[in-house]
Structures are given as C-alpha cells and as structure tokens.
Amino acid sequence: MIKLHQLARTWGIPNLSHFCVKIETYLRMTKQPYQVVDSLPLKGPRGKLPFIVDKDKKVSDSRLIVNYLKSTYGDTLDAHLSAEQKAIAKSFQRLLEEHLYWISMTSRWNYTEANWQTNKKAIFSVLPPVARDLAALVYRRRINSQILGHGIGRLSSQEAFDLGKEDIDALADFLADKPYFMGDKPTSLDASAYGILVNTLGCPIESPIKDHALTKKNLVNYCQKMQAEFFPELAWGGTNS
Ligand SMILES: N[C@@H](CCC(=O)N[C@@H](CS)C(=O)NCC(=O)O)C(=O)O
User: Fold this and answer.
1) Atom of ligand 1 nearest to the CA of 142
2) Which residues have CB under 6 Å of ligand 1?
3) How remote is the CA of residue 41 from the centroid of ligand 1, in Å?
4) What structural domains does the chain harbor?
5) Distance CA 87, CA 175 (A)
6) Which of 15, 149, 174, 227 falls between 20 and 30 A from 236, CA-CA?
7) Whole-structure pTM value
C-alpha cells in the first residue's frame, strides 16, 4: 500500500502543509488506498514534505507525485478535460502553488508574533523542548530565506497581501457558482485548490488575506464541501490536535 509521509494532523484540517493536503486529497479523490506516516521535512528526499513510498519507489514533490500516480494507476480525474481546460487548470494550479502559497507562508513565518507562535506550536511541539526551540529557530531562518528568494519577502506585508487578494478574487470569480473549479466533476486542480485555500481561510493564522478570503462565500462553501466530501471525519471549524 502507498505510504504518505506528511506532517501530523492538526488545526482540524487535513494538514497544516498545503502540499500534504493536496496529496492526501488526491489519494482520496482517486480512491487509492494509502497509509499515513507522520514525518518532518528533514526526512524527505528533497528536505520537503510530502513524499510517498509505493512498493520500493520513493517519490517527492507533489507535482511529481501526481504525475507518478497518474502514470502508474491511471488518470481518473482529468482525462475528460479538453486541452484548453487542462491549460486553464494548470495555470490556476501554478497561481495557487507558486504565488498564493508564498503569501500564506509569509503570514505564518514572517508576519505577527501571534501567528508565528501558533505555527511554531503546530509544527514543532512533536519534538522534545530543547530540540523544539532549536529546530524552530533553524527552520524559521530557512523558510524566511526561501520567502526572500521567491521575491514576495522583498515586498511589505501590505503589498504582499494586496497581491494575494488579487489571487483570491481570481479564484472566487473563476469558481463562481460551479461545484468544483473545472465544472461538475472534481479534478486534480481541486486537490491543489482545497490544499492552499483551507490553509488560508480555514486555519488559525490571522491575516488580511484570510479576512479577504472569508468574504468570498463561494470559496468558504467550497472548502467546507471539499472537507465534508473527502475528509468527513473532520468537522469544519474543529481543532483536533
Ligand atoms: N513544490 C513542493 C513544495 C513542498 C513544500 O514546500 N513543502 C513544505 C511543507 S508545505 C516543506 O516541506 N517545507 C520545508 C522546507 O522547505 O524546508 C511540492 O509540490 O511538494
């Protein structure tokens, strides 16, 4: 059976890691049996989570994991899409994963002290006390240098959140009143969208981007519906830790 290595569940959502939510959602959407292994990024082949182990094969990076799962077990979610629809879905996936994700990361690692403490507790409390503080310090430096390297960290918080609001507007406008991003059926874009959106509007990290996303009723309803459909064991707004 596929082993999915990811951070431990917390916050009443599938995972505090956007990309771990994406892969677990994808596995559930495709009804692929899997087993979760709680892990930390340093255990990942590229120093990141998630990664999967399938038989003797280890695959990391959520994009490559989805490609691997599609080529190994078939593409049951996206095969019906036209070339144009696939291009649109890919563009939104990149908006979510390569832009909005980094604004969400800024709000956790580099915005208010309260957010940092919430984030730190959720990630590092699995470690013993001394190791916890040290690991949090090292990782905070590491993630902040990634945020700087991406470029979003060179903007003021206000500028970054304003750009994030543009992403939220585009997502809300595109989803409109459709049940899923690409229409009546869930596709792999929904795994990405739910993963990044639930980690923006459905988690205890406060920011102008969360406030803005919460004004978009269709995005909130979408996340609630995705969670009820694919993670029925997690009540919306719960805080299981
Ligand atoms: N492009 C990667 C991104 C994965 C990623 O950034 N994972 C985060 C957790 S959300 C991580 O492990 N970060 C640790 C680090 O960068 O040191 C993917 O799609 O899987």
Assistant:
1) 17
2) 17-19, 41, 47-49, 61-63, 142
3) 7
4) 2-230 (1.20.1050.10)
5) 16
6) 174
7) 0.96
